[in-house]
Design brief:
Helix content is 34%, strand content 23%. By secondary structure, it is α+β, with helices and mostly antiparallel strands.
Length: 506
């Protein structure tokens, strides 16, 4: 081996290949154990937990439900840059790069150990990643550190070895990804379709939407339903293994399996869910028909003790939420432990096997997915988002949105159709008004009312002359509360303000 310097391209390649081998190994081992033990996933989840709230809101505002894909892509880019740096630091000796690669591994170990949903055995994946990364780096560095006059056979050996490492890393990563899809969980979900008893589904009445005028369909397809949660990878749970413990300030603790839940009274309800991160005019709102067991039934059976204030729920990934008990105990609230969504078992990304759904509250206090624990307790226990500055009480605000015309659209002057949605769960929408350029409000036509727990479509026709126009809408709920014009950000309890759309009439 020479005492000179390793060429920069070859040094960078060593760092990249060793890092790829480390990540591929971590993915493969995590596929066998649990996707959440992957070093990449664990570090990503830790980043999600630690980044400041303004940064999270900026990411959701810019990328919507693709924020996690962007996070993974950004992490991959950063890791690639650091891998190149590790290689370049090791042009003379292998140990500086090995230290950097080892630090990668230790970061993964620390991230896994910091996760509340993972036990000590979860360090197997990041430890395997660490060991493979360091060993491969030292091995490739030795092969790459050849004299400039090295024979072609030695050079070919390095190239062939590098290619094999790259193929092996790719195969390990793909294999781990395949295993992490949760084949057993997917089969369990397929089987659950036959296990969920038939429940009468309320039909959507004619005229419940104005899709021809530009509104969404009344029910949102499962594949299009918005998803905002803290899980970088959706937990893969089998219904056969699922258990829920309802405990705390109750007279009798309940432990329920999936079949125990299905033997109880099930209801089907169309419910509109809204994310507290939904900006004015945003699309983090969807509607589905959920099937599940009334939460109130379970709480009454367990017997809530005096002084209890919230139901503190925990997800399989460690996420927690606190739902006010007075809301859950309302006879007409309709909160569900949902097992079905739009005629099929819950999709994995929406909480299979069981999730919480509470009409009228923003999701961060009411919609725990992959539910595994429910404790009746006081507000002394602070869940995930309130610990980060969000409000403890989170009733959905009366809001409305213009869906047509789209912002910046150019439309023919004259009679212009303006259409959109309004929502005021658990109160209901009574009226929607629209205006152009700050003029008089015009009352819009409302779609057929389905439920006070669902959105309501609206449309109106405005006579607009050629030129630029600013359209605005506002809703009034059934309690007489008019949507406020005051603009407020989503933090701490949801955005407010009238949605405005600027268009050009030609």
């Amino acid at each position: 081996m020479s005492s000179g310097l390793l060429p920069r391209p070859r040094a960078a390649a060593v760092g990249l290949l060793a890092t790829a081998a480390a990540l591929g190994t971590g993915q493969l081992v995590a596929g066998v154990l649990s996707a959440r033990t992957s070093p990449l996933v664990a570090v990503g989840n830790t980043v999600i937990d630690l980044v400041p709230e303004p940064v999270k809101e900026l990411a959701i505002g810019l990328f919507g439900t693709a924020d996690k894909v962007v996070l993974l892509a950004g992490m991959t880019l950063v890791i690639a840059v650091l891998a190149v740096v590790a290689g370049l630091l090791s042009r003379r000796s292998w140990w500086p790069g090995a230290v950097v690669i080892g630090a990668f591994g230790l970061l993964g170990v620390g991230a896994v150990l910091s996760r509340p949903d993972l036990g000590p055995d979860a360090v197997v994946a990041p430890l395997a990643s660490l060991v493979v990364g360091v060993v491969v780096f030292a091995w490739l560095h030795q092969l790459a550190f050849l004299e400039p006059a090295a024979v072609d056979g030695e050079r070919r050996r390095f190239l062939v070895t590098s290619a094999l490492v790259l193929l092996g890393a790719g195969a390990a990563g793909l294999g781990g990804g395949f295993l992490q899809r949760g084949g057993d969980a997917a089969l369990s979900r397929q089987a659950a379709a036959a296990r969920i008893p038939a429940v009468p589904i309320p039909p959507v009445p004619p005229g419940a939407d104005f899709t021809a005028s530009g509104t969404p369909t009344f029910l949102t397809a499962n594949r299009d339903f918005y998803r905002v949660d803290t899980a970088l990878v959706a937990p893969q749970l089998r219904a056969e293994d699922w258990r829920l413990r309802l405990h705390g300030m109750v007279g009798r603790e309940l432990v329920l399996g999936y079949d125990d839940l299905l033997r109880r009274r099930l209801e089907a309800r169309p419910i509109t869910l809204t994310c507290v991160s939904n900006e004015v005019g945003g699309d983090l709102i969807s509607t589905a028909t959920f099937v599940g067991v009334p939460v109130r039934d379970l709480l009454l059976e367990a017997g809530v003790r005096p002084g209890a204030q919230q139901l503190f729920t925990t997800s399989a990934d460690g996420y927690t939420a606190g739902t006010p008990l007075d809301v859950l105990l309302e006879p007409d609230r309709g909160a569900l432990l949902a097992v079905g969504m739009n005629g099929e078992p819950l999709p994995a990304e929406h909480g299979f096997p069981v999730r919480l759904v509470v009409p009228g509250l923003y999701g961060y206090v009411s919609a725990t997915k992959w539910l595994v624990d429910a404790e009746v307790t006081t507000f002394d226990r602070v869940p995930y988002w309130p610990r980060r500055g969000w409000a403890r009480q989170a009733p959905v605000k009366t809001q409305s949105r213009i869906d047509r015309p789209r912002p910046g659209a150019s439309v023919p002057a004259g009679r212009v159709v303006v259409a959109g949605i309004a929502w005021a769960q658990h109160t209901g929408v009574d009226r929607v008004e629209v205006r152009a350029d700050g003029g008089a409000w015009r009352t819009a036509e409302l779609a057929t009312d389905v439920s006070r727990d669902t959105w309501r479509m609206w449309r109106a026709v405005l006579d607009l002359r050629p030129g630029e126009h600013v359209l605005e809408c506002r809703a009034t709920d059934r309690a007489g509360q008019v949507q406020t014009a005051q603009r407020r950000p989503v933090l701490p309890d949801g955005a407010t303000g009238w949605h405005q759309v600027r268009i050009t009439c030609t």
